[in-house]
Structure formats: structure tokens, C-alpha cells
């Protein structure tokens, strides 16, 4: 089979792959704006304050930018989803992202995603009672994970997190591509906002969030590793981009 025929075949395969891909609910690269790059149209809109995209070197993990939220202990800054996401206790889901606390930040800030009107959230407080990550479900049940160094999450340093719920009452958290373990907990969860949840000013995010993925499946450790190393979801590459990647892999 010649090169052109191979490329067309791979492009057709890529198109089929893209058409059946449905596990990615939303993807926010934050390279230039707050749009949803998954193709689902769930763009983010300003909720309170003035969120921005920072392109400053060191303030984004991948791509050309990151979401910058400059909340303080008295002022909230966050974004709202166009279409809130709700998952039940028997639904599998995953949320993966990079995050960085702003240097000099004080207090227990660090909300990533959750519900403004309920107890739901994924939270990475810089300091306080939780030394790492806390998941809280719609029934106010909590699961806490300690991240190294224990007791303090340093500001100004990006870390990678993936929260994976299997739909069978278990949630596993990954930190910098290493599992922090699995907790048995009800995993029903609502997401209305990015950078805030629970609607308390002292818990808004002060720092950057980058490469935020939301899935309606429990991603496996291989996909966790790909997100950690910066490999995008196939649907975010575009048809020709995916076909090109597939072709290059085939020719090696």
C-alpha cells in the first residue's frame, strides 16, 4: 500500500475513532481562553472576579497558557461551566489537572472544581488540616490524601493530580503520576465551577490550573501517565493531526 493510500486509511480510522469517542466530557487547555476543546461545547464563563490566562513562563504546565485565578481571603475569582456536570454514585468518572499555588499565598485556599451550592469539591489546600487533596461528595462524605512533603504543599510549584472514581464506591488519587491509594466512598459528584466550590471566599483558588480534563469513565494508569507526560486526548488533536500521529507510529 502506498503512502497516500496509507494516510487515507489512517485518516478514515481516525475519523471513526473521533466519532465514537465519548468519554471526554470536557477539556480545558487554557492556552488562550476558557473554551472547551473536547468538542462538547461546555465553555467556561466568568462567575466572579476577573480570571485570566497567563502565558508567563513557569506559570503554565503545558501548551501556551494556564488559567490564572488571583483570589484572596476576602475576594473570590472563579469560572462557571455552561452546562453543569452531575455524576451519580454508580457512574464512573475522572478529573485530571495540573495546579500551582501562587507564591506568597496564605490560608487554606485551593478549590479546583465542585458545586457552588452544595458540598461537592476537589480541593488542594496549601496548608491547614488537609495536607494534600480532599475529595468531598454530594453527601458531604470526605476522602483525604496526603501528598509529599507531608503537612505542607509548597507554593509556586506545579503538581499533577488525577481523581478517578470507578462507579463501584471507590476513588483513587494520583499525584505526580504516583497513586496515593484508593478510598471506599460514595462518589456522586457535581461540577458547576472551576476555581471555587462550597462558595467560601477563603477557599477560592489563588494560583494556576492547567490542562483540566473531565471524563465520564475511570481512566486507567496508562492514560494517567499519558496526561502526566503531556499526551493529549485523540479528539483534541483534530482529524489530520490524529491521522498523522497514527501514521508516524505505523512507520517506526
Describe, in plain words, how this protein is organized in 3D.
This protein is α+β, with helices and mostly antiparallel strands. The chain contains three helices and 15 strands. A hairpin with a 2-residue loop joins strand 12 and strand 13. Helix 1 packs across helix 3.
What is the element string, with H for helices and E for strands?
HEEEEEEEEEEEEEEEHH
Task: Please count the helical segments.
Answer: 3
Unreliable stretches covering 5 or more consecutive residues = 1-21, 237-252
- Largest sheet features: 8 strands, antiparallel
Structural class, judged by helices and strands? alpha+beta
The total strand number stands at 15
Distance between the termini: 16 Å
Short description:
The chain is of the alpha+beta class and 252 residues long. The chain is built from three helices and 15 strands.
What are the key terms here?
alpha+beta; seven-stranded antiparallel β-sheet; single chain; about 250 residues; eight-stranded antiparallel β-sheet; disordered N terminus
List the helices and strands and how they pair.
Layout: H1 3-20, E1 24-28, E2 44-48, E3 52-54, E4 66-70, E5 78-87, E6 93-101, E7 111-114, E8 121-123, E9 132-136, E10 142-146, E11 159-165, E12 170-175, E13 178-184, E14 189-194, E15 206-215, H2 221-229, H3 239-251
Helix pairs in contact: 1-3
Amino acid at each position: 500500500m502506498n503512502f497516500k493510500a496509507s494516510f487515507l486509511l489512517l485518516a478514515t480510522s481516525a475519523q471513526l475513532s473521533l466519532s465514537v469517542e465519548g468519554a471526554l466530557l470536557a477539556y480545558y487547555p487554557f492556552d488562550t481562553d476558557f473554551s472547551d476543546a473536547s468538542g462538547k461545547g461546555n465553555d467556561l464563563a466568568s462567575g466572579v472576579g476577573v480570571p485570566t490566562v497567563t502565558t508567563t513562563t513557569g506559570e503554565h504546565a503545558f501548551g501556551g497558557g494556564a488559567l490564572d485565578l488571583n483570589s484572596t481571603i476576602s475576594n473570590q475569582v472563579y469560572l462557571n461551566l455552561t452546562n453543569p456536570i452531575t455524576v451519580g454514585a454508580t457512574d464512573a468518572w475522572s478529573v485530571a489537572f495540573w495546579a500551582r499555588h501562587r507564591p506568597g499565598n496564605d490560608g487554606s485556599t485551593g478549590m479546583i472544581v465542585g458545586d457552588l451550592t452544595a458540598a461537592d469539591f476537589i480541593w488542594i489546600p496549601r496548608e491547614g488540616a488537609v495536607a494534600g487533596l480532599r475529595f468531598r461528595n454530594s453527601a458531604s462524605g470526605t476522602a483525604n490524601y496526603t501528598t509529599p512533603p507531608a503537612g505542607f504543599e509548597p507554593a509556586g510549584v506545579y503538581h499533577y493530580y488525577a481523581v478517578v472514581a470507578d462507579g463501584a464506591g471507590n476513588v483513587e488519587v494520583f499525584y505526580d503520576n504516583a497513586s496515593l491509594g484508593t478510598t471506599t466512598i460514595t462518589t456522586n459528584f457535581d461540577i458547576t465551577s472551576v476555581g471555587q466550590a462550597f462558595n467560601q471566599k477563603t477557599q477560592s483558588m489563588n494560583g494556576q490550573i492547567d490542562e483540566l480534563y473531565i471524563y465520564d469513565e475511570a481512566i486507567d494508569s496508562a492514560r494517567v501517565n499519558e496526561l502526566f507526560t503531556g499526551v493529549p486526548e485523540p479528539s483534541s488533536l483534530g482529524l489530520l493531526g490524529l491521522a498523522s500521529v497514527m501514521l508516524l507510529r505505523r512507520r517506526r
